[in-house]
Amino acid sequence: MNLANAKRIVMKVGSSLVTAEGRGIDQAALDNWANQIAAIKRTGVDVILVSSGAIAEGVKRLGWAKRPTAINELQAAAAVGQMGIAQAYERAFSAHQLHTAQILLTHEDLSDRTRYLNARSTLNTLLAQNIVPVINENDTVTTDEIKLGDNDTLGALVTNLVDADALIILTDQRGLYDSDPRKNPQAQFIHEISAVHPDLENMAGGAGTGVGTGGMYTKVLAAKRAALSGASTVVASGREPQVLQRLLQGESVGTLFTSEFSRVNARKQWLLGHIQISGSVNVDAGAERALLDKHGSLLPVGVVRVNGHFHRGELIAVLNEDGKEIARGLANYSSAETAKIVRCHADEIAARLGFAFEDELIHRDNLALHR
Ligand SMILES: Nc1ncnc2c1ncn2[C@@H]1O[C@H](COP(=O)(O)OP(=O)(O)O)[C@@H](O)[C@H]1O
Ligand SMILES: N[C@@H](CCC(=O)OP(=O)(O)O)C(=O)O
Question: Which residues bind ATP (predicted)?
Fold first, then answer.
């Protein structure tokens, strides 16, 4: 398995690389990644960057001797440093006549359905305009309780958000070893491993330097999360020459974390677990059988009741006649529209509503069954 066929990738770079271990933005490193990204973009691959470094750069610009621990000081540092990060990427990509776009995300932007769809649509629009999105967590407005905390997790969530084929995490080590190579010189390098391998979390230790957050531990969790949405993850050294091009030519560089899930199944899993439910419908026994036994779509004719308030495109639960949840899926009609087409055959929808979208209330591709 390799990344030779990847068409859309998320590349995450850590604080220690971006800021030369906290000494300040490493413009040469950014220029090097921009060269590589520009080259792979010319081959038709979409690239989204997730970059850390705001706090480390802010601490340096503020002249503070070490990274503070108080939240307000960390947030202030992030606000100062983010200006430098944005400026440095814009500069690096301008050499290739490419523009960048800064996107600062919070946990809520990724868990709330409407915000999630908005973020996704903005990112897709930027990619269609050949812009390079540069994403970071919005550190200045996030409090401890809602903080994603590390950009490895953010990288995995963005991978899901934009349906990327692969997440590439560049760091200050060659990849994953069977124990922390800073502590164990005998540590063995791992070229390829399943992202859901049970030993992963024992192998991976914490951050290597004072500027990184989470270490290899958050990277293996990110790989697992990306795998659940069907993407492979590579952890490799950001200093490895031509690392991006080589990976996309199918070469084995760093550690490849493979995903056993197909993209379609992964999307369904994600539907089951990750998004707030807006409402539900009860269906009759015939519709229940069509869903569970025949993997069919949910048609309005099988719907007996509409509960709650939802818009077209939102996630709703499907309940059987006894009120037990049997599935979840994305509704093609709002709750008000659905209420008008309860028990309707497909050819009656237009007459009832004055218009018709799809024949199904939930298409089977957007339906995840509970089993
Ligand atoms: N099993 C392991 N294999 C490789 N690196 C590990 C392992 N366990 C812990 N680490 C540490 O993880 C560090 C990279 O993570 P981190 O410091 O958070 O960097 P970044 O800023 O790139 O996210 C390495 O420098 C290394 O010391
Ligand atoms: N959002 C923070 C990054 C936190 C983080 O995950 O750092 P790292 O482990 O270096 O990727 C910042 O920009 O400083």
Answer: 12, 171-172, 213-219
